[in-house]
Amino acid sequence: MRALILLGLVGFAAQLVDGSLGMAYGVTSTTLLLAIGTNPAAASATIHLAEIGTTLASGVSHWRFDNIDWKVVAKIGLPGAVGAFAGATFLSGLSTEVAAPVMSIILLALGVYVLVRFTAFGLPRGNLGKPLRKRFLAPLGLVAGFVDATGGGGWGPVGTPAILASGRLAPRKVIGSIDASEFLVAIAASIGFFVGIGSENIDFSWVAVLLLGGVIAAPIAAWLVRHIPPRILGSAVGGVIVLTNVRTLLRSDWVDASGGVQAAAYIIIAAIWAAAIAYSLREYRRDRDNEAVEVEFKRSGEQETAGSPS
Length: 310
Prior knowledge:
Blueprint: H1 2-21, H2 25-35, H3 40-64, H4 70-92, H5 96-121, H6 134-151, H7 155-166, H8 171-197, H9 204-227, H10 230-251, H11 259-307
C-alpha cells in the first residue's frame, strides 16, 4: 500500500511538471521510479503505458482548445512512433546492470538540458508563420522517440524546445501538437516493451496508480502554470533530475565512487542548482518589471494622443 501511495505521488508530481512546462513527465517519473529501485526497462514500460491515458486526455483537451496543428502531429508523430518502438526493443535487450547507468546518462543529459535551457533562456520565442518541413520534423521525431523509450522520457524535452526554437509555431500549438503526437509514441513504445520483456514484468497496478495521480494533477497543473513561472519551475525540475541521476551513476558499478566523492558532488550540484533557481527568479522579476514599464509607457502614449487637439 505504501508503494502504491508513493507511485501515485510520483504520477501526481510528474504531471504537475509536465502540465506546467509541456515536457518532462517521462523524465521526472522515470527518474523517481529508478530512485526507488525499479528495473529500467520495467520503469520505462510502466511510464509509457500510463502515458497512453495521460496523453490521450491531454490531446483531447488541446484539441478542444484548438491548440493542435495536425500537420505537425502527422509529420513528427509517425517517425516518433518508429523511434520509440526501436528504443523500447533496444532497452529491453540490455541487462539491468548495463541499462541502469545507460538510462541515467540519458536522463542526466536531458536534465542538464532542461536546467540550462530554462535558467539561461526561459521559454524560447521566435518569428511565426513559416511552415515546419517534414525534413526537419521527421528526423526530430525519430530521435526524440528513441530517446523517449530508452531514457523513459525525452519526447517533450527534445521535441518541444526544438520546435519552439524554430520560431515557426505558436507556443500553445507547439505544446498541444507535441502532447497529441506523444499518444502515438506511448503506444509504439508500449508495444515494443511487450515484445521485448513481456507483460509479466509490468505491474499494472502501478500503471493505474500513476495514471490516477496524473489525472488528479492535470487541473492543478493548469492552475499552477498561472502562478509559478515556467522559467523557475524548469530550473527547479532540471536540478532534481540532474542530482538524482548523478547519484545513480556514482553508485553504479561503472563509477563506484567513494562516500567522500559522492558528498562533494552532491554539494557542488546543490550549489549550482540553488544559484540557477536564484538567477531564474531574478531574471523573471526583471522581465516582469520591464513588461510593466512597457505597458505603462504605451498607456501614457495612448492617453496623450487621445488628449491632443485634432
